[in-house]
Amino acid sequence: MKIVAKRLMALLAVAAGAVALAGCGINTIPTKEERAKQAWGDVQTQYQRRADLVPNLVATVQGAAVQERTVLTEVTNARARATSVNVNADDLSDPAKFKQFQAAQNELSSSLGRLLLVVENYPQLQSNQNFLALQSQLEGTENRIAIARRDYNQAATDYNISLRTFPTIIWAKTIHAGSKPMQLFEAAAGAQAAPSVNFNLGAPAPGTAPGSAPPAAGTAAPHD
Prior knowledge:
Blueprint (H helix, E strand, L loop, with lengths): L1 H22 L4 H37 L4 H16 L10 H25 L9 H34 L5 H5 L52
């Protein structure tokens, strides 16, 4: 009976120690790390969703704007670069890889923005049902990308803070000494908002030929 009692006391002591460690935050760092990694997975999913829409978008626009080959080629090449840069959950603490990933995605955003400006000169696309469906999907995807990036930044910031604040900094310096801060998304240079993907397909301004830039604000259109 004494042996059983001693074993029981030992088990209780181990359990009490585990509870005490948990209460001190020993599990906080890996828990927050996993949440941030899950949020990163959502970011990748939304960017992949956008990449999957691009080929159909390019093909549809090309059918109505064959002469816009330069812009369409830029979009296609930007998509290829964006999908070739892979950052997995273990690379989130690598500034160089993260910067490369964000730069590639920003390049695709910029090229899509230029394509959409060109599209405004082709009102015939307004009646193209395939194009309208792509418009709706792309708008929704851009919104989901913005939300996924925000959620990832919040989760990664929460994790990063746990590496620098008490009491979890104790575990960051000991048991979880290999843990490193995760990189965060930053706004693209000159960007004040998410890229606009609203297809305003009104008739071109008078005197504006298809495929050409619309007159600058305050500039009168040429008269016949």
